[in-house]
């Protein structure tokens, strides 16, 4: 009987260094291009609504739970808000204003903020809400 010597099989190695480099670059790419939702302004509990769409408004009025109105990080009254908003809206092509009101804010304060925006010349007025959490 003829005995043949078995040749050792060549070991197959994968170049893991290149694979790790690619994964690392993809990780950096996705971290840099992703956007994390961070709302500026007051810490408000917005009312929830099922119907709604995402709108970007450059000017935002905030109403806290006590009914205090804030614009551009400054506490303001509704009468002053009309003047300040009309100056800001005069320089803008889009006349959009967003009202972010706490769900426990008095209705009168929210309506006066919305009314001040309309009197200042806002063409589009949006009320900020959040989507209900899934069960």
UniProtKB/TrEMBL annotation:
Its membrane topology: Single-pass membrane protein; Single-pass type II membrane protein
UniProt superkingdom: Bacteria
A GO biological process held by the record: protein transport
Regions crossing the membrane: 12-32
Subcellular location(s) per record: Cell membrane
One Pfam family from the record: ExbD
Alphabetical UniProt keywords: Cell membrane, Membrane, Protein transport, Transmembrane, Transmembrane helix, Transport
Coiled coil (residue ranges): none
GO cellular component, one term: plasma membrane
GO molecular function per UniProt: transmembrane transporter activity
Family label: Belongs to the ExbD/TolR family.
Protein name: Biopolymer transporter ExbD
Source species of the chain: Thermosulfurimonas dismutans
Taxonomic lineage of the native organism: Bacteria, Pseudomonadati, Thermodesulfobacteriota, Thermodesulfobacteria, Thermodesulfobacteriales
């Amino acid at each position: 009987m003829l005995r043949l010597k078995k040749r050792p099989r060549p070991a197959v190695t994968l170049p893991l260094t290149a694979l790790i480099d690619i994964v690392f670059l993809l990780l950096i790419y996705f971290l840099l291009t992703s956007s994390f939702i961070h709302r500026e302004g007051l810490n408000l509990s917005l009312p929830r609504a099922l119907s709604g769409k995402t709108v970007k408004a450059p000017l935002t009025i905030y109403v806290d739970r006590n009914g205090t109105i804030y614009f551009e990080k400054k506490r303001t009254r509704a009468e002053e808000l009309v003047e300040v908003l009309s100056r800001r809206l005069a320089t803008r092509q889009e006349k959009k204003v967003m009202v972010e009101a706490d769900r426990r804010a008095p209705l009168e304060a929210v309506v006066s903020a919305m009314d001040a925006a309309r009197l200042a010349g806002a063409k589009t007025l949006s009320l900020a809400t959040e989507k209900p959490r899934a069960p």
